[in-house]
């Protein structure tokens, strides 16, 4: 659980970096592709060099051949691509705190569905009324957090993107956990996820170039702006290792505390939109929703 909370703090920091990079170059997808490429280079150098990495990649290939691992289990990186693209596009306008509250709502819904359908390695989890109520309360928290900004043009549309990104990242955690269980190591699963995210973002970026022409902005020289990809390595590896033990919804909710605390701290201490009273109220509602959804349901009788 402590690892999941730390991963949530990492997600908040990743959102700030990708949002800053996207604002600098004026292209959220290109910013996400740049940071993902940085992480991909590190993984390509690291995973094949580790004995556990080589064994894990061989186990993934064997699982795909035998049918124990389905091809779509390896598509968790698509959810990661949606998540980092959402960071690059919307964080600059929404702020990290509002973005994170919306991510929380999407993650709660996505985690609930993933556990119900058994997407993760731990199989199906019973959907209790408390969990459903907590997920719905998270959605209400988003409405509260952005209630004082709905009059700003484009804000409502921007909030939909992190909601979808939250569903995507919960699905990614489930699928990466299944790949990690097959590989018996989180690092091969992380490499697979990054590879799929890289291809997805590259395809979207090329479509954008075909539709709107080549970008005119250059990538900024500051190396720290690309650290989001390195943070993503740690977050995805943590999810691949932990989600099989605690389930998708519990992992998502445990990381919520880290995301919210990190997001509020960064919005309060760095340049950008400051958290308003509505954001603080929405955050408080989200914590209450997390506590409600984390309650275990009553087990059915024999």
UniProtKB/TrEMBL annotation:
Superkingdom as given in the UniProt entry: Bacteria
Coiled-coil region: none
InterPro entries the record matches: YdcZ
This protein's UniProt keywords: Membrane, Transmembrane, Transmembrane helix
Transmembrane regions: 29-50, 71-90, 96-115, 127-146, 152-175, 187-211, 223-240, 247-265, 277-294
UniProt protein name: Transporter family-2 protein
Organism name: Pseudonocardia adelaidensis
Origin organism lineage: Bacteria, Bacillati, Actinomycetota, Actinomycetes, Pseudonocardiales
């Amino acid at each position: 659980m402590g690892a999941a909370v730390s991963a949530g703090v990492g997600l908040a920091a990743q959102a700030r970096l990708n949002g800053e990079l996207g604002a600098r170059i004026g292209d959220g997808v290109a910013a996400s592709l740049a940071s993902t490429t940085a992480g991909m280079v590190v993984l390509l150098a690291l995973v094949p060099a580790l004995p556990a990495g080589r064994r894990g990649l061989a186990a993934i290939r064997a699982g795909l051949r035998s049918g124990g691992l389905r091809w779509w289990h390896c598509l968790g990186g698509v959810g990661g691509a949606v998540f980092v693209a959402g960071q690059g596009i919307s964080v600059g306008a929404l702020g990290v705190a509002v973005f994170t509250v919306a991510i929380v709502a999407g993650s709660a819904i996505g985690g609930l569905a993933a556990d119900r359908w058994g997407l993760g390695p731990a199989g199906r989890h019973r959907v209790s009324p408390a969990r459903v109520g907590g997920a719905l309360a998270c959605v209400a928290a988003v409405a509260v957090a952005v209630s004082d900004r709905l009059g700003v043009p484009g804000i409502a549309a921007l909030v939909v993107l992190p909601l979808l990104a939250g569903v995507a990242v919960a699905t990614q955690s489930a699928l990466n956990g299944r790949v990690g269980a097959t590989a018996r190591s989180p690092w091969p699963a992380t490499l697979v996820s990054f590879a799929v995210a890289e291809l997805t973002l590259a395809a979207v970026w090329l479509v954008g170039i075909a539709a709107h022409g080549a970008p005119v902005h250059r990538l900024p020289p500051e190396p720290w702006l690309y650290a989001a990809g390195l943070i993503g390595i740690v977050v995805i590896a943590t999810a691949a290792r932990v989600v099989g033990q605690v389930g998708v919804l519990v992992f998502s909710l445990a990381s919520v505390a880290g995301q919210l605390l990190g997001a509020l701290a960064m919005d309060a201490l760095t340049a950008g939109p400051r958290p308003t009273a509505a954001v603080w109220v929405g955050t408080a509602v989200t914590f209450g929703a997390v506590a409600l959804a984390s309650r275990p349901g009553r087990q059915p009788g024999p």
